[in-house]
## 1
Amino acid sequence: MTLESAPCGDPVVIETSDLASIWVRRLAELGLRIGTVVVPLHRTAGGGRVVGVGDARVAVAGAALRRISVRPDAA
Amino acid sequence: MSRGLRAPTASVASCHGDQWQPVPTGGRVIALVGSPNVGKSTLFNALTGARRSVGNWPGTTVEVGRGPWAVPGAGTVALVDLPGAYSLDPISPDEALTRALLVEVPPEERPDLVVVVVSAADLGRSLYLVSQVREYGLPFVVALTMIDVARRRGLVLDVDTLSRRLGAPVAELAPRRRGGADALAGAVSQALDADRARAVTAVLGEVPPTDPEDDLVAAERRFAWVSAVVSASVRRDPGGRAAISDRIDRVVTSPVIGPLLFLGVMWLVFQLTTTVAAPVQQGLGDLVSGPVTDAVTTLLRWCGAGSGWLRGLLVDGLVNGVGMVLTFVPLMAIMFALLALLEDSGYLARAAVVTDRLMRTVGLPGRAFLPLIVGFGCNVPAISATRVLPDARHRLMTALLVPFTSCSARLTVYVLVASTFFGSSAGDVVFLMYVVSVLLVVLGGLLLRSTLLRAFGDEPLVLDLPRYQAPVPRLLLVATWTRLAAFLRTAGGVIVLTVTAVWLLSAVPVSSVSGSFAHVPVRDSAFGAAASLAAPVFDPAGFGDWHAAGALLVGGVAKEAVVSSWAQTYAAQEPGDLHDPGALGTALRSDFARSSGGHSGPAALAFLVFLLAYTPCLATITAQLREIGLRWTLVGMAGQLGVAWVLAVLVFQVGRWLA
């Protein structure tokens, strides 16, 4: 599943991302790195989502969310 | 970008706004860097006492602030507030400038010391930049902010361990409460005293990679280092992020309530910058045109110059110009205070999320909505409001589009012309002007996106949402005053000089038989001659008459003066009620009928469209000069004039054909 389709409030682990490398790095700088546990929170106007990364919150557009694959966090 | 913070010649170191003075030889420079939302600018103001000179870096539209900082033991140093950056791998011109001034300039032009501002509440995120500063061997000190927020989140920091792992001094700060500045000054003083050769050296021990693949590998290595530092120096107590923040976000950014709330906030901003500012502006205008003018006139009379050219120059030129600048003060103060409030509270980032998708259709991020909305009140604060946009390219594009938003000053002309020519349909015509205004912004954005400013708006929205916080009145006042003072310094002089120049033109007779200096009918003055010269340009649009051309020339200085200019050139009473133009309306109907060959309606409509699209006013131009520089201001003016003329001709010719 993708970060766009993941259920709200359930922690997921980022597996892959096929965004351009510049955006992969920017997301990583904001904490959304491969292997990181994040929590997809509520949906926003415009089709995006607020994603929880630890205590921080990052708004990500739907187009980017659809290109980030995630799996449920087993822990 | 090859010139550093201590550029040796003033010619390359001038800003578009305030003059950027190079640091004198031997003067010490400290660069303040950090990612957005860590309190960097607040810290800068606290350290420099808000004695901030702000300007665009030479050759760019990127803003850099500088101010003196008295460091006990080290004297006064130049503190430079570099644009916010998450890392030294830039994705915007602002971030590119930060990288350039830190690592791409020759070593002798680099800062003596870098103060990296790091948020204790998001340590992992902030330390990536620190890892790169270390990697490049730049001497640095860490300023740790938001410790109170970290504590509330249950994070306990071991500052000694953090300092040891970073290999640099760490000073705990509370810039919003003015705390910790002494500790930072002490750390900076010690660091400056240390031999630069003993500065922190690269922990990774490798030259930073240039290949993109290597770059990602290096990034992973840095992240691993950051994780190790965070694990060693941060302990989490039970508890967590205040759930209330997420609950607020759920409402503020939601698909339905979010846009409605945003529109409500924008309505409030619009009202405050127009309705609330208007009576204060009126009062200041009356003060200048009444008591101040009377006082100057009385003084001149005592000196025996009560009615000559000197009175005209001082009263109608200089005093009038100063009055125009003063009337902008309440408007700009309210605008800057609101900007500071929206930014400081954390709402602006949420507003950007809500409007992002809509604005991206014209190649702009969501935040651009704010200046564009404000533009419908007044273009001048709207141009200044482009500073809410973190990307210099977006600021440039928005500043080029703002003049197409129909400000309230244009409304007075719409009402007069529409009432004169369209009777009971006047309201529809005025509404049409606002529709045209919105269309011009949208089409202008699409055009810019596909021509001059390609590849905008393709990047996905990835936006850090800062925590909500209660604004501190003292910080709001400092931010408002800093911006207001900078506006008055740069725009004030230009406005006064231009208003004086317009008066001079209208005072100079074109021939000796027309009259003497300052005692000449408008038509026989240099101004009248210029209007007559320009009039034929408007023949294809149906209003090729010197009265109309003269009104448009005056309108280029201030749209508020268009109606009074007509009243003066027609020697008619300025109508008290714009819906009932009286003798002025009769004169306008007569001249428009003559210049348009009997097609007054299309000619009047063409005039309104031209008035909407061409140069808004002198104050807007000066604001643009300050924000985007001379070259882009001239490009914008040429574009506005071109669009205005083509549209006006199109409207008249099609209207005449349909009639």
Note: Residues 8-20, 195-207 of chain B have pLDDT under 50 and may be disordered.
## 2
Amino acid sequence: MSAIIFDGIVQGLQLSLLAVGITLIYGLGGVLNLAHGQFAIVGGVLASLLISKGIPPGISCLGGIAGAGVLGILVDRTLMLPAYRFRGEERLLLGLILTLGLSFVIDGYLNYQVPEFSLTLQLPVAMVEFAGIPMRTASLAASLVALAIFAGLFAFLKLTLLGKCIRSIIENEVGAELCGIDPSRTRTLIVCLAAMMAGVAGVTQGLFSSLGTEMGPEFTILGLLVAVVGGVRSINGTLAAGILLGIVNAFASHYVGAYVAYIILLSFAMATILVRPAGLLARFT
Amino acid sequence: MKKYNDLFLLGLLLAAVPLVTGGSPYYMRLATLALVYMAWTVAFNLIFGHTKQLFLCVGALAGSAAYMTVVLTKQLALSPWLSVPLGVATAAGLGALFSYVSVLRGLGVIFLGIVTLAFSLIFHNLVLGLRQFTNGETGLVTRGLGFPALEQALPSYYIFLAVLLGAFAVYGALMRSRMGLAVRALSDDELTAELSGINVTRYKVLAAAVASAILGLAGSLYAFYNGIVSPSVFSFVSVDIPVLIGLLLGGMRTRLGPILGAAAFAVIEELVRPFGQLNVLVYGFLLIVLFVAFREGIVVLLRKRLGVSLP
Amino acid sequence: MLLSVEGLHAGYGLTTVLREVSLDARAGEAVAVIGPNGAGKTTLLKSIVGMLRPSRGRVHFEDRHLDGLRAFEVARLGLAYVPAERELFPTMTVLENLELGAYAQKARLNGAAYSHLDQVFDLFPRLEERRSQLAGTMSGGEQQMLAIGRALMAGPKVLLLDEPSTGLAPKAVAELYRNLFRLKSAGLTIVVTEQQVALALALTDRAYVLEQGSIRLSGRSCELAGDASVRKAYLGVAA
């Protein structure tokens, strides 16, 4: 029983990692990034490329993640410009379509160029014991990385001035501008960070099992679901939602078949959105 | 009868197409498919273009009707005259349900989009999971199920033409009625419309129900015509994307937009075929370029350039 | 002339709200813009601070044009705008809201800045009491204080307020205007729009009457307070 919950938390942390990027991009850019999963894949592909050139896996992964970040910056500064000219619902819709198109472009290109791509990473030790529970080292490593990133993110947002600026933009972009904060420069930084976090999720998928080019859409959808369930403007909510959905998924997969488990997960997410549209931890709607 | 002019002209024009294709089965199929997608796009225009309900489950709705129809016909040996309406009712019911719940809960555009996207996935997995009924990935053969007309090229074309013209007529009637006025007010400012006494809920749900019914009708008949119904026939990439691109290409909230747009997409699809795997990339590129440079669509462009008042 | 607006035309989409509006404010002056609902007072302020782009006319501040500047750039120059909606950060504390207000000054003076926090707390002791309270949980009057306090944290040269008395109980309005008077006495240039005309005219040196997008009258506040048409329309006094 506790093993299932543990498993759920491990999976959930990865989901949260993906989802928090979507939350941040939505909070700062007012755009729902439908190409987020592809950021993760690109990170993995770049890492794999570096590994094939003989660079040690650790550095390659960092390189892949950095590459995802660069992609994020490029996308924000070029593709998304037409969307940023508008506000509110228009921007949201335009952004949806643009990122959807981008996801197809990246998917189409990768499937064409590197269809056989698969990133699989091995750790020196396969199993390890943590709090009395035998775990795969991969799970432990991935979870620790995710937790470290979240801890860093929370500290950054709560304690630093830049972090507060980011929170202020998420909360009230008009108010932030009145305080002299330039939303678009801050936004590019956040898109870069979000893309890098997606890159981490992509690379750690290679740790768990393997990463393939076809996983992009699935990553995006899972990330979206978690972000929306958690409340698309709340980072705490996203973390909570990810872990919750991870646990639901772990239980569902344990007791029923793969298809039904996915349906349960999706239905649960749908129900949560309908019951609490503002998000899991929403206080001010 | 000026209002029925364009319906008449359209019908005439499209009825003449088989003369042009000269009996080539390939082009007949292409044309027939185009009709199906036109009907779907007209329906999507009603839901998304006019009432701003982002239903990212067009394929799933059409597919629900299709599978319901085929499974009922096969399992219960029902006549298509019964199973098709049942399928249509399924789609209409689902569409109305999504619309009603979203208005009730005050879901914004993205939330409805995500919820319907989730439904698309649920549908896909349901079909795969209930393989004792649906035969999973392989799908079900739909030949010889009691709808011989849809197994021949020419009659099929005219059946779907009737469906399209019917959908077009229904759309036109709705937009001319009180509902059309309400819907136009809705799309400008929903809150003001509501405060003016317009029953937002009723019109949104009605639009969703009617549109979903059209999706279901075309979907069910398509299942018979296609000879086989499988998850990939009604997937997001197979249906939702072409419909979305088609509507954007043609022009949202215009009468002819969905039809021109779907036709344009059919042409593009043919042009893109030699690219093989890269066609997805081209669609993505198209989406981006369209929405940046060409947002209003063909109809509006033609209106401006030719000074013609196109509906 | 610290701030001057010349021949401003502005509106939303195809609707023109402001026509040929000009006003100015000298350093240390308090200027009021009064007028009925829909006259364009908010549009005017938004056009000045860069939240709206005017179709014609210019805005000068100190010795430069504000044409085409974004709202955050205008804020960094030293014009602080307190909108009617206040636009606070509800899940952040009073202190955090104030800290963010100081960002504009940091950006202007490149980091090293004199913190106005003590002055703000001095002016609004209630804010100091509630420094760790979440902005969204405060009353209307307190939120208004916070909004003004946040604007003051930037050490602005001009403070623009849009109908600051809206939604406040009479006691809170009186306190608000007492505080604005203290700020004025300390030398801050203030531009305030109001429907609560009596208080606005009492606070300010000069005033403009904006009706249907144009300036109908302007002059010294005390004179306008005595003007028959103003008294009838805005002060509820029979002519």
Note: Chains B and C do not touch (no CB pair under 8 Å).
## 3
Amino acid sequence: MRKDFHYYTLVGSIILFVSVNIILMSLGRLPFSSDGFGIILGAGLTLAIYSFLYKDNPAFKITENLYVGVSLGYTIIITWYNFLKPDLYDPLIVPLFSAAAEKSPQYSLIIPSMLGIFMLLRFSRQLSWLSRWTFAFVVGLGAGVSIPRVISAFILEQIKPSLHPVFSGGETIFSSINTLLILLGVISVLIYFIFSVEHKGSVGAISKIGVWFLMISFGASFGYTVMGRLSLLIGRIQFLLRDWLGILQ
Amino acid sequence: MEKLLQIDRRIIFAIITVAVIVSLVLRFELPIPASMPVRGVYNKVESLPEGSHVLISFDYDPSSKEELQPMAIALLHHCFRKNLKVIGMTHYPGSPGLAEQAIVSIADQYQKVNGTDYAFLGFKPGAASLIINMGENLYTAFPKDYYGNDTSALPVLQGVESLRDIELLLDLAAGTSIELWIVYGKEKYKFELGAGCTAVMGPDMYPFLQSKQLVGLLGGLKGAAEYEALVGKEANAVSGMRPQSVVHVIIILFVIFGNVIYFASRKARHA
């Protein structure tokens, strides 16, 4: 009985969706063109995804898989036309095999290309050892480039505002309070994360302040997350009401 | 009392949906004052002389379009109105369609010409290594633009050899690209960096404002609405603030309601 109810709900929703689109097209609210069918497709896929809020269903599953497939296909095409073709195929492969090519092949591209191919050889039992060369290159280069820059950007530059003088002239009382709050927040949270000392007495009191700072930051993050998710819902409802149904101007 | 604690979550979804629809359909004005981080980006763009180069990195895809596309459109209005040279690019393979649509549609409104007033370089993988490459030589990082033109022949890029020659870089990010631009770009090549990000990322970006590694920040749909209001091009983000505010009030009421019911039922159980 319950299964039948869900089945009829799904079929009824699809019939309702088709009927609404026929009415919209016959009234001229949606153009009988690729634009119109694009909007219908977008509206249908949006509703199918949101149908998950009611219950998992075949319409949601189909749309979910469609999204994964389309995303992957789109990524492959974009990567070919924006990267592989202009940066590898045109400067290396075309001049190598075409007598009409105007430029000579860029042989230096062979080395990074080989390293890229070696990465794919992980799938071969006999040749997977070659992928270690690529990994060694990536890890070595990555660490060398990243470590000094990350220390500079994320640690040294971030320490500066924490060490900003509370009173150096010209500040308002609020900016001085802000500086003190930052100092208190940094110290109390750092002390909270010192686990080799028992959190008792003054250490316990300061770490408790650190917990409050952490809770407030978690609350701010959660508040922003709610705002972000709502923005996505608002955007889709704007699309449904304006582009599809034509209710909003 | 116990029944109220086990209310079907689908009722809450329905209430939220109805609240969004009603507040979109019923028009009422809400003040949208610009916050300091948003004003930071606006003031920086405003201070640039005509013909300055602004690089906008559209680092988002359709899943974050609702928050970041309104920002992109508002920023493009501001840049083209000020006759700045706009260079677009992206680290996201899912972004070129959205970015191109935004750039071309706004450029057309100001009669700006591709290649002369703006350029769209398209997508390139590599993230950190791409930024380093752009910092050394923009033309080896992007030998061709999105349309297959040689970048070295584009008039809009005259005077630009690398990231050092960019007057302002704006990153619209749905992921970690702001940190990448700071670590691998700004730290070494010393350009001014502003950012827009999804609301979820907002709190993580505030330390970079404090340290002045960012000149300003547009956080989520709220940031986009503030920028739309500042440039006088009120569109999707501003109209989205009505349901945003209404639903926030409803959620706060739900939180209070849930807590009251929880403590009341606990008291009743212990009594």
Note: Residues 201-244 of chain A form the longest helix (44 residues).
